[in-house]
Amino acid sequence: MSEPTDKPADVTYLDIPTAPHVYFDIAPAHGVIANGVEVELAARTLNPLTDGTVEVKFVTTARLRCSQAGAQHLRNALDAVLKMFEASQQGPAAASKLN
Prior knowledge:
It is extended and about 60 Å long. A hairpin with a 2-residue loop joins strand 1 and strand 2 (36-48). The chain contains two helices and three strands. With 99 residues, the protein is of the alpha+beta class. A three-stranded antiparallel beta sheet has the order 1-2-3. 25% of the residues lie in helices and 34% in strands.
């Protein structure tokens, strides 16, 4: 199976301003079921306790479900943004570049 291109010519993209933002710190679990990709996302939380201490927990923030092609697109996007971080360490102008 060939890898998808970054921006296929036959795909129309529509920006929906009300789409949710998903924040996460870790992806603690992943799997495949019926040819679908599953990835769990979680964020670190601080929970105050009655004794004045704080308990650290990770809570689910989202569950990604996609096709193999969708996972490849996500991986390509993540690889590209990680390259931007590498470039930002070489110079400040590269960090502000958008695709």
